[in-house]
Amino acid sequence: xxxxxxxxTPLLETESLQKWFPLPRSGREWLxxxxxxxxxxxxxxxxxxxxxxxxxxxxxxxxxKTTFGWLxxxxxxxxxxxxxxxxxxxxxxxxxxxxxxxRSVQIVFQDPVGSLDPRLRVWQxxxxxxxxxxxxxxxxxxxxxAELLPQAGLPPDCLDQYPHEFSGGGRQRLSLARALSVDxxxxxxxxxxxxxxxxxxxxxxxxLVELQRTRGLSYxxxxxxxAAVRYAADRVAVLYLGQxxxxxxxxxxxxxxVHPYTKALLAAVxxxxxxxxxxxxxxxxxxxxxxxxxxxxxxxxxxxxVEERCRKEDPALRSVPGFSGRLVACHxxxxxxxxxxxxxxxxxxxxxxxxxxxxxxxxxAVG
Amino acid sequence: MTEDPVLRVEDLSVDYVAAAGTFHALSNVTxxxxxxxxxxxxxETGCGKSTLAHAIPGLLPTPPARVRxxxxxxxxxxxxxxxxxxxxxxRGTGIGMVFQEPLNSLNPAYRVFDQVxxxxxxxxxxxxxxxxxxxxxxPFDYSRRAPPSASSTIGRPFxxxxxxxxxxxxxxxTPASLKEEVLEAxxxxxxxxxxxxxxxxxxxxxxxxxxxxxxxxxxSERxxxxxxxxxxxxxxxxxxxxxxxxxxxxxDEVRTxxxxxxxxxxxxxxxxxxxxxxxxxxxxxxxxxxxxxGRPRHPYTRALLRASPDRSKSEGPLQSIPGSxxxxxxxxxxxxxxxxxxxxxxxCSVDPGPPLAPLELPGAEGHRSACxxxxxxxx
Amino acid sequence: MASTDxxxxxxxxxxxxxxxxxxxxxxxxxxxxxxxxxTLRINPLSFTGFVLVVVLCAVGLVxxxxxxxxxxxxxxxFTGPTRQGPTWxxxxxxxxxxxxxxxxxxxxxxTDLAIGAMVAGSSLLLGGSLGVVAGYYNRPRSLSAVLSxxxxxxxxxxxxxxxxxxALAFTIALGRGLLQIVFAIFLTWWPYYVRLARGEVLVVKNxxxxxxxxxxxxxxxxxxxxxxxxxxxxxxxxxxxxxxGTVIVTFSTVAFVxxxxxxxxxxxxxxxxxxxYYENFVAVLPWTVAFPGLAILVTVLAFSxxxxxxxxxxxxxxxxxxxxxxxxxxxxxxxxxxxxxxGPGEPEADPMARVETTGGEATT
Lengths: 367, 379, 364
What we know:
Chain A has 14 helices and twelve strands.
């Protein structure tokens, strides 16, 4: 069980949550009795979200962060592990009870265009949860939606418009209004600002934080946008290839990342600051496949600090001395943890540039 | 500047003519790119930066687009005055382009080899004045039965004079030399094991690899100007960092001028030497990167820089720009930014603002701003 | 879909007064019809198709309701001179027994239209619903998946034969008569709708808004009705429109080949049967074959043109994407936090109108 920082029963809790997507076996594999293959999208993630807290989940594409959000919203069924909501096991909730549980957890989807039915009007879209959950009639739904729209930052007189008449920010607000319509305790925000410009992003983030304060919401903020995490989150969890590799308070993790991947991720974010133009730490290679991953640390193929142990043993999520309230999954956390990312300079940027250096066994990113 | 600029955009205005009205996508954009420099253009969605990227090489569909005024002078030639049929030769030889979504910009039906080889053929033709796609296997010529004629691949008027025999002699284009050059181009963009990559189709590559192939393709034309339109927006952060690093290194190696377009202030700060900021189809500020980011001289640039989340929620709300970007069909009178501007004075709603004029300020050399009150904007 | 007239719903955001609940529905219907008209108007070809279909249906209806409007009763003998080419009295000429071809062609119009609508309509209902079931309910290892499998395999079985050959075989098996042919064609017709509906459902099913509805706690049945059906209806309707013409051609072919209709002894009069009968006189009385053939051509053409126009009209993406993607952001322009569309009282900037007109220009 993951430690909940406050010690009380967390709002949402997952324990070694798993989602594997099985791949169909080809005829040749079937003949050769090859083992079944599966994409390990989420592979044993244990997390908690407390009341009125924002937990940010960051990672790149393929890290399983969106799948985790869908599992937590019970839109997909996990392959293994448990999900608890206010202490109650909801992993296998079905039928009417699942439908009623959905009142407490709502989700704002990544794609502000696709997640709104193009043939419905604003009041029908935003009012859909109200109708589904409380069986409200047309006039009642319209009244409630008209009240709700200003809270999400939309004019109340756009009830009869269609989603395509809105810009990206407007659509994201519609999604938000829909999620808030049944007064949930937890809102899962799947990349809420990735489609938005920076000025609009600031407006949406402000709105989210304000709503959290006034309505006592909890957020599970799923994003790759480190700046948004810095502003909106309380705690942050870093995912890599379906596994949790670092967890801690947002200032600690963003200020002094321990895991080499977290360091690389933070160093890769472009900052609008000309002075930081040249000092950069880069990792080589691309995100490897998620199909039947080999044992050992999943970051090992790209890690500049890799050693023999990393390729054989799975690193456990553990606390690291000197970093209180932090959980890290790295064998060499003690040695690596205190190296600030700024001192890890790129050796010729992408390490593919220096095949000679690698052939001589020079560690490519230790400057 | 002692050298002539590679590209000079003068007073360029582009409209989209639709039935509901005319959209002023670009209004009086003026700037130039000196040789070997990277000019970044930054702005929000719908500010016209993509239109600019497509307008320079004449790639805008006309109609609905229409160049209302202005010139695009590339190496001394005004591209807007060229007849349409001459544009392909200019694009393929002098201006290379890298687009946002490499999966859509690479032809899914051809292997990496063919994609890059095509660009090399185009360049060889330009350098030698000889049709290249003739003897060897190429993207248009798998059967070898009916090779495309020189006049159909490249414009006939560009063929040099002389007898056919002479032209045939000047064509030492063996498949081996072509492959060598393709491999060279792929190695240039740091692709490990280019021999394998050659035989793959675009969909078999990862996003970062595709973008590298795209860059290899653009650079193997050895363009004088490379236009990169949001080249990393579709990539993950760590992959984006790799591609950006690669591009930075290539700037030094290849020494081409680059027009780098992005919505991400951070990427522009990292890549560009000079930065232009666009708002509602206008270039509102232009200057050296350190000056723009260090001490912006236009209220919009300042607001944009401050909107990036730089604090936590306990430290108060983020500064956002009040109001919203105006529709290009209904631009406000006067300065397009005045309804959202904190410095706006009464004359801002009438006066369209000064032309992008150099600031006579110490420490702001080359910094130009289209705001009457540029001196009052403090960082 | 804000239109140029005042939109009453926007004026009262909360809803119409309880008294006249049907009023907004009627207004919406009227506005919808107006949009159809305005959009079709842009493309002259589809507009021609639209007008032709309306005229054909109106004439067919009149003839069906009151056969006495025909110049001569259908199948009546010796209405004038025999074996006569087109004249003012007999615009399409007469046959060897003095039957007026014009009256017979007109009398066949409601029959053929009804056949087209019946076959395509019942195929749409049966095939469409089977397709929705097969597309939507296929969770692995469930009863519904088995059902979907059965539906699809049966569909494949029918699709394995050329539909015309199959229709001919069924007609011969079922015997002579109009309803027999209709049923035979229907038997070969519905599998196409299963395939089409299933394909559309598979696309719609994976749209995020379906997941959003599920996350909102909407029941599965309602998701199918409200989101899935609504989003697949339009492609199905387009196919249906295009299909009416095809059915008429197929029916006429079957009637021609099998001679399963009793023309010219007893009603019903049908174009294919007319051609089958007059084929014997084609060398001496060419007009007897030409005019029923022309009637088939015009009807099929009208429905195809209308169908093509509807396809452009009903696909919201083709309607919305004004020009190429690269300039779309510029057109969308602004208002990141507000609807891009105009506020109330800005009639000239109707987003839909803008899209319609420019869409037409861009496609021509």
